[in-house]
TrEMBL record:
<dbReference type="Pfam" id="PF12680">
    <property type="entry name" value="SnoaL_2"/>
</dbReference>
<dbReference type="InterPro" id="IPR037401">
    <property type="entry name" value="SnoaL-like"/>
</dbReference>
<dbReference type="InterPro" id="IPR032710">
    <property type="entry name" value="NTF2-like_dom_sf"/>
</dbReference>
<feature type="domain" description="SnoaL-like">
    <location>
        <begin position="20"/>
        <end position="124"/>
    </location>
</feature>
<protein>
    <recommendedName>
        <fullName>SnoaL-like domain-containing protein</fullName>
    </recommendedName>
</protein>
Length: 145
């Protein structure tokens, strides 16, 4: 929960939606600092469909993880739908990602759903669901002919 519970729920939802959109825009812009600025110091990132599932705790660990992940993939993300929740501190975002794997130069495309929870106006939890197959395909080098 946000520490400012006197703020109307609708205003919190709108503010959190803007933060979510800024976060995803920063990924597409390759601006890791802007992305990390959207995260609470106690953030937990979870990727339950990764093989194996991934859980990263704390802003510093998230920044290290993102440096590696965004070094592997070049991504453009597009928000396709935002779902407001009963809890004004939770936002569900559907988005698409297109780009390429930097290591193979192969194209990448996927769809995602992220459940974002907020504290103090920043993302404190991010559970991201996606199909891991397109990433594996993009990272696999094309066999020589």
């Amino acid at each position: 929960m946000t520490t400012d519970s006197t703020e109307p729920a609708e205003a919190r939802r709108a503010r959190h939606t803007r933060v979510a959109e800024r976060l995803l825009a920063a990924v597409g812009a390759g601006d890791r600092a802007a992305q990390v600025a959207c995260y609470h110091p106690d953030v937990v990132l979870e990727f339950p469909y990764a093989a194996p599932p991934v859980r990263i705790e704390g802003r510093a660990a998230v920044e290290t993880y993102l440096a590696i992940a965004l070094g592997v993939f070049e991504l453009n993300l597009t928000v396709t739908r935002v779902h407001e929740c009963v809890d004004p501190d939770t936002v569900i975002v559907e988005f698409t990602g297109t780009g390429r794997a930097r290591t193979t130069d192969r194209p990448y495309a996927n769809t995602y759903i992220a459940v974002l929870t907020f504290r103090d106006g920043l993302v404190v939890g991010q559970r991201e669901f996606y199909n891991p197959v397109p990433a594996a395909q993009a990272l696999t080098a094309t066999p020589a002919s």
